[in-house]
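ZP: hey, is the iron/sulfur cluster complex queued? I don't see it on the tracker
AM: it wasn't, my bad. submitting now with these inputs:
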Amino acid sequence: MFCHQCQEMMKNSGCAAAKGVCGKTAEVSDLQDLTLHVCKGIGYWASKAYAKGVYDEAAALFVDRMLFATITNANFSPVDFEGWILEGLSIRDSLRSACVKAGADMAGPHPDAATWMAADLEAVRVAASKGKGGWAEIGDENVKALQSLVLYGLKGMAAYVEHAYAIGKKSQEVFVFMLRALSDLTDGSKTLDQLTSLVLETGEYGVKAMALLDSANSGAYGSPRITKVKTGVRDRPGILISGHDLVDLHDLLEQTKGTGIDVYTHGEMLPAHYYPFFEKYDNLYGNYGGAWWTQNTDIETFGGPVLFTSNCLVPPKESYKHRVFTTGVVGFDGCVHIADREPGKMKDFSDIIEMAKTCPPPQELEKGEIIGGFAHDQVFALADTVVEAVKSGAIQRFVVMAGCDGRQKGRSYYTEVAEKLPENTVILTAGCAKYRYNKLDLGSIGGIPRVLDAGQCNDSYSLALVALKLKEIFGLDDVNKLPLSFDIAWYEQKAVLVLLALLYLGFKNIRLGPSLPGFLSPAVATVLVEKFGIKGITTPEADIEAMMQGA
Ligand code: SF4
Ligand code: SF3
């Protein structure tokens, strides 16, 4: 195996042993490479067919789901990937036939395309195992680095698109881009400049995908508003729900209401409480535990069943594995998988509910509240107060500390930054990175909490909108002139997409940690540093000092 898609890759160069740091086995890693390999074939033929006026949405959806399924900590099941590869090959072959029928030019244009179009699985497997990551046999290290940026950005984009699709929103434009970008990744003749443009284009379509999900979420569940979420427990059995899928949460709340079973959110499901729509469910009790990586101990003490609706799943311990349920693209052999909903129906969570009835109430970990719900509309509603505070100097700077949390000890940096930032600063956050400081008492400025949580990583778009709104209010010609710094933490591929989207929107001087992506070549890293001012983190003290001076 070789995998270097997440921040916890071994030695910041890649996981290449029998198992990745995340627990992904070599077998699953290779199968994921194969899955993506087949998806590139689908992208190739789908783009050719599209040029001839044939659009296959089912193929686009399949590719989208596969990009999402191969995101870090989503699916660890060889059985799932074997099935998907066969399904993908048949989709690819029917697209190829559609191209013949539509009179497409079957010869080109990609010189390396033939290697990628092998018909039988074994040939695809051999082709995929040739290079690092299965696709890297073409091009030098800079080509590979740019291809990685695109591929990982696409995985992040797929997550946004999949969540929007679950709510009933889709964009043909974004689907067509994803297929074309995958096709371009099979093209060994692309120059570095062309690949760099593709990276920025991925950011551009990333913004569209983020906007799509933002409107899907607020259309279905209302605009997030300031909310206090309980962190304690009550004396009834519970179900813990994790991941990012709000439609799954809705189905679960409908099916548990009136049963005497409480639903607790975990990790990235915390921001669900901020949506007005879910207020009517009095059995949506509170949030339990911390960020994704604390699940091994949180699930142990929770005592009841746990539903994973998306990443991040940590391979479950034997002691509680029987209580772990997966759904959507999440999978782990030995855990019960809840099937997708049929059109117009809910998913059937009765097995989880039956198990919950036999379980003890959760053990209390803490007692308190987390405040959040500062997505764009809520912040815009506070705009007068915020602008006044900036003008009076009560707020000197905003620091965006969004992104992911992770296991690495060095991530305590983010807790320290939050604690040590001057009291006239406000932290804007989204994603599970917030668990490094969202339970600290950092006070408020004129009634505005010093940590403004916009929501999930899926809501990072809100932070960009807030920044663009501030630019407008202050009459600035450049968003980089705002009293705003970025100190972002990354772990998985949605964070890659968010970074590309921010670069596309013109944000510069972003601090990225705890380490710069190991999949970047030195030359590509240099371009990011020189052209966009991206930088790594140093110490909390030095970085705070630099940020306060606008650097
Ligand atoms: Fe390693 Fe991350 Fe890949 Fe897992 S997802 S194998 S930890 S690089
Ligand atoms: Fe977290 Fe996995 Fe990225 Fe959604 S739950 S931000 S890491």
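AM: back. The chain has three domains: 10-220, 227-357, 374-548.
ZP: great, adding it to the tracker
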